[in-house]
Amino acid sequence: MTYEETLDYLASLSRFGINLGLSRIKKLTQLLGHPERRYKTVHITGTNGKGSTTAMTAAVLQAAGIRTGMYISPHLTDYTERITVDGQPVSRKEFAAAVAHVKTHVEQMTAAGAEQPTEFEVITAAALHYFAAAHVEYAVIEVGLGGLLDSTNVVRPEVAVITNVALEHTDRCGNTIEEIAAHKAGIIKPGVPVVTGAAGAALAVIMAEAARQKAPVYRLGHDFQVEPLSAGLTGQSFAWRDDKLLLRPLRLRLLGRHQLDNAALTVKTAVLLAANEPRLSAEAIRWGLEAAFWPGRFELLGEHPVFVVDGAHNPAGALTLRVALDEYFPGQNITFVLGILQDKDMEGIIRALIRQGDRVFTVAPASERAAGADKLAALIPGARAAVSLEEAIRLAADAAGKAGVVCIAGSLYLVGTARAVVRNM
């Protein structure tokens, strides 16, 4: 298949929607010869921060000279972003070839009467196959949704990471923190170390599952600590410690206090892996963190005005974004370009993000699940609906003025296009 034919094939699978369960992916990986068993993995889930933690963990492994694959979702502009080796996305030709290889086994499955795999399952299988073909030593795998029934949960990792737990995907993972935490804790495997930043009721669920699996748990704030040292618009530094090791200063390009928590999880993961991997030195951890980059998450673009793009798409993520905006731009009103999917907690996101004096321009993200710009604007006093993302960004820039701040947020479906629009202004 060509890349365009591959996209058509994946689009044809989208009608099957999200169908959680492991039976299809287990059958598919079996037919592929279990590629996921041919390299070591780190498996990462969480409500927020799992993408950043995935990127930082992969960067640390790469800095150690370890051939590293990374699988993330969703992509911002191109499907090839989901599968990278040593920081480089697969080419469109390679992506198409990997999906085509999986497609032949999908057809074999369905011909034998098996249920049709979903789009995400096919892409996951393609990534697992590609990593084996590329001879990676480690793959850092980000969960798509939840954990317990997510198609990535066919891996048996060296370390399982659960960044945090907040209410999300309540239609699929449960209506309480405890129910959602149970889905996240589903990535815990017998005897495999767990690193987590979860707290409260969520942590209790994780601890209970880890005890059932006889898996040791390392908790941020209990078993290891992070201490901010300095922060500015070009990056931040921090100290990290556990009962045996102190690392300071460590530097990070990623902005926001929340990224220090994600970095702390990354460091603990690397320290655990280092017990069996001598290349993972303190220097590799330091270099990897300094090199780590994760686009579209409190990413600054331009100067007059400053543009901040962030994929915050749930109330917890929106509150984290607001805290960062207040930290880096104290006392300033923010001009927002906001687009949210209609199956998200729109009112919760708005409450967490918007303050009196802020200006808001709403837009519909490029998704069939998008809330209409008018519907979203009706929830925000004084908000104005725009007919397109380009118009919304132009109106926001004019309203903010050269000394202002424009924040584009509410959905990852906005971020990729928004980055391109801002850079071309």
Q: How would you portray this structure in words?
A:
The protein is an alpha/beta fold. The chain folds into two domains: 3-291, UDP-N-acetylmuramoyl-L-alanine:D-glutamate ligase; 299-423, Mur ligase, C-terminal domain (Protein-Tyrosine Phosphatase, Chain A). 41% of the residues lie in helices and 18% in strands. The chain is built from 15 helices and 17 strands. The radius of gyration is 21 Å and the shape is globular.
Distance between the termini: 36 Å
What Rg is obtained from the alpha carbons, in whole angstroms?
21 Å
Shape: globular
Number of strands: 17
What is the average of the pLDDT values? 95
Task: Please summarize what this structure is.
The protein has 425 residues and is of the alpha/beta class. The chain has helices at residues 3-13, 23-31, 50-63, 92-111, 119-133, 170-173, 177-184, 200-213, 257-274, 282-291, 315-328, 346-353, 373-377, 389-400, 412-423; strands spanning 40-45, 68-71, 83-85, 88-89, 138-142, 159-162, 194-196, 217-219, 224-232, 235-242, 246-252, 299-301, 306-309, 335-338, 359-362, 384-385, 405-409.
What are the salient characteristics of this protein?
six-stranded mixed β-sheet; 425 residues; single chain; 15 helices; 41% helix; UDP-N-acetylmuramoyl-L-alanine:D-glutamate ligase
Topology:
Blueprint: H1 3-13, H2 23-31, E1 40-45, H3 50-63, E2 68-71, E3 83-85, E4 88-89, H4 92-111, H5 119-133, E5 138-142, E6 159-162, H6 170-173, H7 177-184, E7 194-196, H8 200-213, E8 217-219, E9 224-232, E10 235-242, E11 246-252, H9 257-274, H10 282-291, E12 299-301, E13 306-309, H11 315-328, E14 335-338, H12 346-353, E15 359-362, H13 373-377, E16 384-385, H14 389-400, E17 405-409, H15 412-423
